[in-house]
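In the current project phase, the collection of sequences with tokenised folds has grown. One resulting record follows, to show the layout:
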Amino acid sequence: MVQVMQADAGTSVAADRVTAVVWLAACVSALGGLLFGYDWVVVGGAKPFYEASFGITAPADQAWAVSCALIGCLAGAMASGGISDRFGRKPALLLAALIFAVSSVGTALATGLQSFVAWRILGGVAIGMASGLSPLYIAEIAPASSRGRLVVLNQIALVFGLLGAQIVNLLIAEPTPAGASLDQIAASWNGTTGWRWMFGAAAVPAVAFFIGCLLIPESPRWLAQHGHWERASTVLRRFGGDRYAEQAVVEIRSALATAPGRNFRAVLAEPRFRRVLVIGVGLAVLQQWCGINVIFNYAQEIFASAGYAVSDTLFNIVITGIVNCVFTLAALFMVERWGRRRLLLIGCAGLASIYAVLGACYIAGLQGWPLLLLVVAAIACYAMTLAPVIWVALSEIFPGEARGASMAIATTALWAASFVLTFTFPLLNSWAGTGMTFWLYSVICALGMIFIYRRLPETKGRTLEQIEQSWT
């Protein structure tokens, strides 16, 4: 990779062309999204087996075992802003990769519920860091006309991580007879060994992520904000040639000159940027409270309510993962053509409608393939709209001097919302039923559509500095 970067350093290309060097750096950063996706979903397939292994039966303990990683996500998201703004995007990504590798092995070797929870929380720290850092790094190295597509790479890697976890779970798990007791599952290969391999397999891509991060350059915008103009220009030339570097440096200097020395606290003192932060937090919360993640984290319960056995559920999870990948790839081609705002409005409207029908089916007692089709439709809608595009918007809208800290606040809000969603689903499902729970998510999506329509402007085709100036 370093040789490729050096070979391209002397070329001169149009500012809107994406070079191979930018693609390579973006793909390496997107490995954080792949690990994020794998670690986030592997728990869904391993859930019946580690629960049997540790004797987890109480709903509160089940919810805690699944949602405990979100405590780490909150900590990682909060820490990522300070680390990335002070030490750089690259060191922060390296730290996240190291934590991913260590926590995956630790979870696989857990001897009880307490140690399992501790390692899952540490893994959550890596998720919280990578979830904001990967799209942030990509946004800061990408040319304006292709920034949306490149940031969507992170989401594509994420869904491949989801699919990878689902396929690994399916390949590792031995068939489980319908109606098997907790003791039978605990004594099986799945309950003693299989679920451990499901978690431990993440160490392989984590090491690849760490090595890749050693090779990529620091974000040129971070370098410029910290006064390292020569290094920033060198990186920009590697990314796009002399003319591209000159244009980018002029725009970055202009943006920084409007408020020299401005820090995060000074940014918050400006009403226009407080408004931007509210929009970012609102988008982050919406991405979680739209409800789609309960399908991934509680697939067993959702498909069991639809009449499917455990082995059938694992196969259905793989189907949903494939659909997730296909429609996220579709977003790669649509985000620059349709724009961020339109895709988000379509996503909110689509999910609100699908959840309304899905809830009605559960209440009516329907089972089997109609519910599977509705679940697949919801995942397709989410994968093409809210899942990738909200990350694109979050990586674009914040001011440069406080982009890392602002992104950290938004991702902290995202993981706080995710914790509430994940922890409350088993309780809501038990108290109100699956149908009423999905109706609640339908209402949230409808409110999200109103919020986006009234608050979020279109950002496609603008440089990060142009977006920042437009908030004036």
About this structure: The chain has a mean pLDDT of 84. The chain has 24 helices and no strands. The radius of gyration is 22 Å. The chain has one domain: 2-470.
